[in-house]
Target: Fluoride-specific ion channel FluC
Amino acid sequence: MTTLLIALCGGAGAVSRFALDAEVRHRVRGSFPVGTFVINVLGSFLLGVLTGAATHHAGWLSPTAKAGLGTGFCGGFTTFSTASVETTRLWLTTGKTEGGRYAVATVAISLLAAFLGLALGTALS
Model:
């Protein structure tokens, strides 16, 4: 049952990522991959909230639900591989500085978002 829920939630996360990325690309033009950046930051925040709430409220979610939402949805929503490809593309097309900035910003702001989400999830529980 857990594997099925992870697969279903992962699919929902991937579809959500696709839709959000398309919307961001429609609204924001340029070489900087804003869609993937926003998705990874938002996904990190969501996983932080989920982790904070689930950690401090042991009975709040079943282990199966935690796996479905955390591993499935958040894992399907965020995308390290696309961020890596986009970093490389920026590196090759606009130079090392732009590619490096994107890589550092993605990691740093995603970590900050995860910490903020963890704090919020903890405070809510």
